[in-house]
Design goal:
The protein contains 15 helices and 16 strands. The chain is α/β, with parallel strands linked by helices.
Length: 429
């Protein structure tokens, strides 16, 4: 399935009185992620307006000229929103989330406070497997309601595009149910959703002694059924000690490619992996990378794969942070995402993630914003439609009550997003 956009027709919209407009427009006209010093180029315009019609951006420029055009073309039907000298940027693209679950994992939370590690909790029956029962018992409608609430929370923080994974059902029926729940929620939300099958999250208890048999199930049953129903754009694997090996990940990626689905992977969160074995698949994204080896770090600059960093999980687990500064300096393309999930990153706030990236990973505010918008869009292969404010692109914008874009990363734990525009639909917070 293609990424699901907003439903319905948006009323023509004019955003006026913009103090700072961060276009992130590539002056060279390339449709490529930003790397190195390019991450500092926000394409800032002052005293501007943006005209949106039919879900697209149709004009960006001086307030007088764009306002006159919009009024002439639309007349009384034009909706005008005063940005009050605030900062406007492309809507955030949250390119790694796990929204299909029933309950928070509060026991895991307390056990970690008392010193248990992620792996110890998982071996004792907590972690991912503890979310499985709730998802298996819940109806599609119940799961969809939970997912929709998450999307709406994300929107209030400035997010307009979300990648949403299954991964807590761990059976064919429950994984398909999870993806259908994502689709149902997406049809009720004005933003855009890209879906991912994460059947290879961990091995469920009933296959504990037969992990390769579970991989067979993912490859031979889950993936073909998901492809036939067009329920996902990507297939993901948690490639990690205690989850799936590189060899098993290769098998899942092979199965995904045979049916035309893209690939992405959780890798190097707790232990190093040899990513050279996965490079032939050209995954859209490698996610986490907290334990990336020097060899693989250097190779990222020569690859099209985006490095999606998830500082929310590092914070919540009190774990080491990814080597963002070294990745940027090596020429790799980085993205940032929340990793919203009930066990290791229970946040829907992209501004909080940007703050963590700046304070804990020494990423500058400009680099963080690029990573959370245009580069994250490329990690979902939506860079030609999302992630920058340009004529012809989808009308996805976030309006912040801030005179300077750096404030978005500066005020942590305080939401300053005043409004979002999702495929042309204005939502005021």
């Amino acid at each position: 399935m293609s990424a699901i956009p907003a439903q319905g027709v948006a009323k023509p919209l004019l955003l006026t009185n913009i103090g700072q407009l961060l276009t992130l427009k590539d002056v060279a006209g390339r449709n490529q992620p930003l790397r190195g010093r390019e991450l500092l180029e926000l394409g800032i315009l002052q005293n501007t307006a943006v005209f949106c019609r039919d879900g697209k951006i149709v004009a960006v420029g001086s307030e007088v000229e764009v306002g006159a055009r919009a009024t002439q073309e639309i007349g009384a039907d034009l909706r005008v929103f005063d940005c009050r000298r605030g900062t406007v940027l492309p809507g955030f693209v949250d390119s790694h989330t796990h929204p299909v679950f029933v309950l928070p994992r509060l026991i895991d939370f307390e056990q970690r406070i008392h010193g248990s590690t992620y792996e110890e909790i998982a071996k004792a029956g907590g972690g991912i497997r503890s979310s499985m029962e709730g998802v298996r018992k819940a109806s599609e409608e119940e799961l969809s309601s939970t997912v929709l609430r998450a999307f709406e929370d994300m929107e209030r923080s400035g997010t307009t595009t979300v990648e949403a994974k299954s991964g807590y059902g761990l059976s064919t029926d429950s994984e398909l149910k999870s993806l259908r729940a994502i689709r149902r929620a997406a049809q009720q939300w004005s933003g855009t959703v890209s879906s991912t099958l994460l059947g290879a999250h961990v091995v469920p208890a009933e296959f504990q002694q037969r992990p390769d048999a579970y991989v067979d199930l993912v490859c031979n049953e889950m993936i073909p059924k998901v492809a036939r129903e067009k329920l996902a754009e990507f297939v993901d694997v948690f490639c990690e000690r205690g989850a799936f090996t590189i060899a098993q990940t290769e098998r899942v990626f092979d199965a995904a490619q045979k049916v035309g689905l893209g690939t992405r992977a959780h890798v190097c969160q707790f232990t190093p992996q040899d990513l050279s074995r996965l490079s032939r698949f050209e995954p859209a994204s490698y996610d986490h990378l907290d334990c990336l080896t020097d060899k693989d770090l250097q190779s990222m600059a020569q690859q099209s794969t985006i490095c999606t960093l998830l500082p929310g999980a590092s914070y919540f687990l009190a774990h080491s942070y990814p080597k963002a500064r070294r990745l940027i300096d090596a020429g790799a393309a980085i993205a940032l995402a929340t990793d919203f999930n009930p066990g290791t990153s229970p946040t829907t706030s992209m501004p909080l993630v940007l703050s963590l990236a700046c304070t804990q990973m020494r990423v500058s505010p400009a680099e963080a914003i690029c990573a959370a918008t245009i580069n994250a869009a490329h990690s979902l292969r939506l860079g030609s439609k999302k992630g920058s404010i340009e004529v012809g692109k989808d009308a996805d914008l976030a309006v912040f009550d801030a005179r300077d874009y750096r404030e978005i990363c500066y005020w942590f734990g305080r939401e300053t997003c005043r409004a979002t525009v999702l495929n042309g639909q204005l939502a005021i917070h």
